[in-house]
Amino acid sequence: NPLCVECSPLGEATEVDHIVPLQDGGAMFDEANLQGLCKSHHSRKTARDKANRLIAATRGRAGRKSRVLVL
Question: Of 4, 16, 31, 58, which has fewest CB within 10 angstroms of its CB?
Answer without folding.
Answer: 31
